[in-house]
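hi! just following up on the protien thing from before. the input was this:
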Amino acid sequence: MNPDSVLPRRRAPGAGAVTAVLLVLAAIGVMIGEPVLIPSLAASAGVLHSTPTLPVAQPRSVVVAHLLGAGAGYAVLAPAQSSPWSAALAGGLTFAATALARTPHSPACATAVVVVLQAPAPARFVPLLLGATVILVLAGFVASRVRPGAARYPVRWW
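and the predicted 3d structure came back as:
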């Protein structure tokens, strides 16, 4: 059997898990009146459910990288105005910070961009971001246990 013909069937259950966790984040946002679902978290859900055994999908990378992205965004925003240029700088700084911290997770670069372009209040945004990344990780853990034949997630917690 051609392995490429099996791949879509193995990925389909992941689509349901990604949709479910994104709906949970959206619902939480509606309930508290704050945006919890941001584009970078949707990308993280996709990474986590499509490549659960890679370093980029492990809990440490998901959680820490997004926090580094937020930090880079606020660090750039402090001396500079919100602009595409400063957003690009924050994204690049996030990539460097995650590489240095050994927490590779490219969707976190988008978190930095969101921070610079939207300038959310840190006291509200950072705890919501932390909570959302923990929800993504827990959803990955649960999905890997309930789907028959799914790769176990995480490979390592930290």
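The two ends are 37 Å apart (CA to CA).
Residues 34 and 96 are 29 Å apart (CA to CA).
cheers
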